[in-house]
Amino acid sequence: MKKALFLVLAFALVVLSACGNDTPSKETKNKETKETTESKEVNLYTARHYDVDDQLYKKFEEETGIKVNVIKGEADELLERIKREGDATEADLFLTADAGRLYRAKEDGLLQAVSSDVLDEQVPANFQDKDQMWYGLTKRARVIVYNKETVKPEDLSTYEALTEDQWKGRVLIRGSENVYNQSLLASFIEINGEEKAKEWAAGLVSNFARDPEGGDRDQAKAIAAGVGDVAIMNTYYFGQMLNSEDPEEVKVAKGLGIFFPNQDTSGTHVNVSGAGVVKAAKNKDNAVKLLEFLSSPESQGTFAEANYEYPVNESVEPTELLKSWGEFKEQDIPLSVLGDNNAKSILIFNEVGWK
Amino acid sequence: MQRRLANVNMWTVSAAIIMILLFLPNLTIVTGIFSPANENWAHMKEFVLGSFIKTSLILISTTALLTIFIGLSLAWLIAQYQFPLRKFLKWALILPLSIPPFIGAYTYHGIVNYTGVIQTTLRDRFEMNLNPSFFDIMNLPGAIFIYTMFLYPYVYTITRIFLSQQSASLIESARMLGKGPWRTFFQVVIPISRVSIIGGASLVVLEVLNDYGVVKYFGIQTFTTAIFQTWFGLGDIESSIKLAASLMGFVILILMIEKLLRGRRQYSYSTTKVRPLPLIELKGWKAITATGYGLLILSLGFFIPIIQLIDWMFLTLGTIPMGEFLTYVKNSVTVAGISAFAIIVFALIVGNFSRLVHGKVAKLLPKLTILGYSIPGAVIAVAVVTAFIALDRFLAPLYQMLGVGTTLVLSVSLTMLISAYIIRFFAIGYNSIESGYDKIGTDFRDASRLLGVGLTKTFFKVDVPMLKGAIISGYILVFIDILKEIPLTLILRPFNFDTLSTKAFQYASDEKIMEASQASLLIVGISALAIVIFYKFLEKEPD
């Protein structure tokens, strides 16, 4: 019995020493560099979880000698952490995959304006915050995919048309807790007004093929399974399915057509990944450098290729796959409204019973 | 006399300090209940709260009942009977705990959905296209299934240890008095193991209440959904904390009812020798049924998802960077190992305190420390960040004296994460230890004290050896829980610190469940190793 306790202790000790050798020494190393050469690192809080991001950070480090320290988390939680850390925060740059969150960061006074000719050249004005508090880095469109066998592209026109009776029991979309849906509705609030947006949400709910469940990919699969005929999903998920390691997923994606709605009206809904320099940043210059690097032509290619997103930098061509989907008209609204209207869209979702 | 008093003081004081530290971050949440209700709160109440609460109640009550049924029946079989594969099942039945429920949910959905192995096989081999809703698990019953299959080990582990070590004399008496197995089960086993059953089931309930991954993916709206909707969607963290505080209030109520139900009756060791129960050998179809039942549960909770994950691992091998995986393993094991050790030490101290003091309020105090387990990790994280930043600011003059250039020191180190784990998972360790203390009662300690042995010496010489099983099971449960933990690890980690669970989450949250398989399998592998080491080599049975 003593042996048992001893073993528990020993295990804990082994574990402790295993880390004791390493983690603290790494920390002290960090601190040393911080003290001696203040400007040789940049601290990033990011809500993007893609492997390609890490590769880009490494490349940035190789090119500039500036080390990128990263904490990956969920956008809202990271924002709350920055907020609570206040002036003392270690964060220099906040990166997230939704314009609404960038807006919220700005509204909460967590970001600062940065001006840079390089950024102005690389990021088009409509993908920048008007006060230059944040910059878009990649774009994704929220489109309609359809069953090639039961739906002709001529049948499709706009998001709004999906509320018509002919689509009763045929529309698939994920739940309202998802930020992409919140931003979609937020854009309609801006374009069509709150009343119309609410009518749209209610109309779509009454055309649902089933209660919302799963993620974007699951909507595409539900089309293949015959649950519904059209689904609203993000472009990059469709790209991922076409290139999946699972041949069954590829088969599903190949049976689907992609349609960019509202081409004759308000344009297809687009959202961005973007980043802003934190107000209390201690390595502001490095943060700007990282922003410039991520929006540079060579990084933009990597961003887009690996994750089937559209580059914001207009000098960079999208990949072959994205080009094959054709060019399309985007919603012409300031992206900050996605954040501004976010709460309103939640209330609407709850009121119309969009789960 | 004086020495004894000093001892008592040392124990009570340290227990008090631990409890205060554990409870302090929760305080910021509890006070949230008094914040004024705003229009968001009114909106939630008008449109959604009612149905969310109903769903949550169905979810927790059904899951609790099912986990009790499965956990207790398995514990009873293993503790009482001998049948083929018993020794293997005894420890293997804990394995489902090593699979994070959200990974389990993604995996099961991956198996049964349109592109999954079942439908694909039916389609391609047998040309059968069944109604897709038949395979839909993304609903309330599906979520109940997921939680039951991956959480029943809480009930199983805690009750099995109780039954096999403590209840021998009572059950033997029942047998000798001619009671059949069923009557023994219902009239003796259930009443005497009530504490462990409720202890295990309350862990299940708390885990279901605080989980967000499964219900979010399945599109089920629960009370947790409301917490996150107000925070993330409406950007109103005050209302969200108010909701979390209400949830805590509900949990306090449940805990008090449990204490009342537990009542006056105590079942503790009556002999000095803690004997295991002599096993009854099952033969023929009875033995087959027992083995089959154990294997069925183990397959549903472990083998089936694991086989799918292994399949995905081979599919995606080489497509994701694996170079850093050794570091992730080391990070995971380190934080889980340290935190679990600290939790068990703290739980022993607080548990001992709970035994020493008299009075209902004092007895309830330790229970309050488990409150942190009832609300979503993300909310706890906010409370912990707030507490640590306050601490850092308080210590700032000291940092300056030491020549540290920054204000945030503790809150950007692993200290914050480990403390958060301790706050969150104390409930798991404490429940194990408490049921251990309950079991040994106070007679032996009193005897030892009467013989003039000091309190501390008594603790090490008398209590700890008798608590061995509880310590081991508590350590393992906590260790595994931390290994697979998500929201806290994600938000509270220092820079450049990845663990297996953050890696698995990174892929899964991006709908790349196949890519998440490598990290998930490593979590499972390490957990399984821990279980094997402790159970196979340490818990030797005389049989």
Automatic annotation (TrEMBL), chain A:
Keyword Metal-binding: yes
Signal peptide: 1-20
Keyword Lipoprotein: no
Keywords recorded for this protein, A-Z: Ion transport, Iron, Iron transport, Metal-binding, Signal, Transport
Gene Ontology process terms (BP): iron ion transport
Superkingdom per UniProt: Bacteria
CDD domains attached to this UniProt entry: PBP2_FutA1_ilke
InterPro entries in UniProt: Ferric-bd (IPR026045), SBP (IPR006059)
Cellular component GO terms held in the UniProt record: outer membrane-bounded periplasmic space
A Pfam family it matches: SBP_bac_8
Single Gene Ontology MF annotation: metal ion binding
Binding site for Fe cation: H49, Y236, Y237
Family that this chain belongs to: Belongs to the bacterial solute-binding protein 1 family.
Name assigned to this protein: Fe(3+) ABC transporter substrate-binding protein
Organism of derivation: Paenisporosarcina quisquiliarum
UniProtKB/TrEMBL annotation, chain B:
Listed GO CC annotations: plasma membrane
Originating species: Paenisporosarcina quisquiliarum
CDD domains found in the cross-reference section: TM_PBP2 (cd06261)
Keyword Electron transport: no
Alphabetized PANTHER family for the sequence: FE(3+)-TRANSPORT SYSTEM PERMEASE PROTEIN FBPB 2 (PTHR43357:SF3), INNER MEMBRANE ABC TRANSPORTER PERMEASE PROTEIN YDCV (PTHR43357)
Chief location category: membrane
Keyword check for Transmembrane: yes
Domain of life: Bacteria
Protein name: Iron ABC transporter permease
Coiled-coil features, chain-numbered ranges: none
Subcellular location: Cell inner membrane; Cell membrane
Entry similarity comment: Belongs to the binding-protein-dependent transport system permease family.
Sorted UniProt keywords: Cell inner membrane, Cell membrane, Membrane, Transmembrane, Transmembrane helix, Transport
InterPro entries given in the database record: MetI-like, MetI-like_sf
Membrane-spanning intervals of the chain: 12-37, 57-79, 91-111, 144-163, 184-206, 240-257, 293-315, 335-358, 370-391, 397-423, 519-538
Domain ABC transmembrane type-1, residue spans: 53-262, 329-535
Record's bilayer topology term: Multi-pass membrane protein
GO terms for biological process, alphabetical: transmembrane transport
